[in-house]
Design a protein that fits this description.
By secondary structure, the chain is mostly helical. The protein has 2 domains: 62 residues, no CATH class; 208 residues, Orthogonal Bundle (MetI-like fold). Helix content is 75%, strand content 0%. α5 crosses α12 and α9 crosses α12.
Length: 345
């Protein structure tokens, strides 16, 4: 077998193993979520028929939903429907779960994307600064900010932010994605309100959308900034103690060249994973911020579904979260190969 054929075969085996691991991970996630959902102390039948329904009506709906069947059979039926692309109907809206997720997810995507831009855009430089000025006033300031962002409850920060910047100062918009008077004035193309407003050329909606978006995105970004800056500082400290950095300084290179051209380039691969995981966490973990700001996104939908005991919606959301993390990990692996050619071997 030639070297090229051997290389192709190795890559095919690696891809097969990766796909198998992905399938096992998602299947395990489905099994765990399904059976936990069936033992939750919430009755979805009662949520449908109401507390005043008679026993016959309750039993009829109970049978229609298939709850009278064994758990393993319920799971197989759900899995068969899932393989056909059917996530079931949501109790909350009566619509297919897939259409509900497609409707609410862009709002969270818009929020999380701006948040990770803020978090990574500020967190990485601050982490580098803290490492380069170790034990200085700047280092202590960055570490205090990181500790505050990482340990302060996000819902409390959200309420304080609304009280100060919206109620007291009036610098930002309040709850929701846009002013009520402007709601529905642009056609939904992408679900990203800022993008749709730009496509429609509607400046009033664009300004209102940005005005409502900036505060919750900044607070989420501050939370991710804390994590990203801490990890960046840790990675940079490890690199700045290496011999090649000392050699570069002895050769007379400027501190800027030593930090950014030598040390920082060596942590890019690690930072890719950190930022990707932080982004995934924002996409599925913005529940509290969405609740505080009445943001009609994925987190709010998942919370409402949990409260109602709507396991079709909950399992659909869990599956989406799992796929997001899998895709982000795959994306990180691809970027690894771009920034670190050694991973191609």
């Amino acid at each position: 077998m030639t070297a090229a054929a051997l290389f192709t075969a190795n890559r095919a085996r690696r891809l097969s193993r990766r796909l198998l691991h992905i399938a096992i991970t998602l299947f395990g996630l489905l099994v765990l979520t399904f059976f936990i959902g069936r033992v939750m102390p919430v009755d979805p039948v009662l949520a449908i028929v109401g507390p005043d329904a008679d026993h016959a009506t309750y039993q009829q709906v109970y049978h229609q939903l298939g709850f009278d069947r064994p758990l393993w059979m319920q799971f197989l039926i759900y899995l068969q429907s899932l393989l056909q692309g059917d996530l079931g109907n949501a109790l909350l809206t009566g619509k297919p779960v897939s259409s509900d997720i497609l409707r609410v997810f862009p709002a969270t995507l818009e929020l999380a994307t701006l948040a990770i831009i803020i978090g990574a855009g500020l967190g990485i430089p601050l982490g580098v600064l803290a490492a380069a000025r170790r034990n200085s006033l700047a280092d202590y300031a960055v570490r205090i900010v990181s500790l505050a962002g990482y340990s302060t409850p996000i819902f409390w920060v959200g309420m304080v932010g609304l009280l100060v910047f919206y109620a007291a100062l009036g610098w930002v918009g309040g709850a929701g994605r846009v002013d009520l008077s402007l709601d529905g004035q642009v056609t939904r193309h992408t679900g990203l309100l800022v993008v749709d407003a730009i496509l429609a050329g509607n400046g009033a909606v664009l300004r209102s959308a940005l005005n409502h978006l900036i505060l919750p995105a900044s607070l989420l970004g501050f939370h991710s900034l804390a994590y990203i800056s801490r990890m960046t500082r840790s990675f940079m400290l490890a690199q700045l103690s290496q011999e090649f950095v000392i050699t570069a300084r002895v050769k007379g290179l400027s501190e800027w060249q030593v930090i950014w051209h030598h040390a920082f380039r060596n942590i890019l691969v690690q930072l890719l994973t950190v930022v990707a995981l932080a982004y995934g966490s924002l996409l599925e973990g913005a529940v509290l911020i969405e609740t505080v700001f009445s943001w009609p996104g994925f987190g709010s939908y998942l919370t409402s579904s949990l409260m109602l005991g709507d396991m079709n919606a909950v399992m659909g959301c869990v599956l989406v979260v799992g796929v997001i993390f899998v895709l982000l990990n795959l994306f990180s692996d691809l970027l690894y190969q771009v920034f670190d050619p050694r991973t191609k071997v």
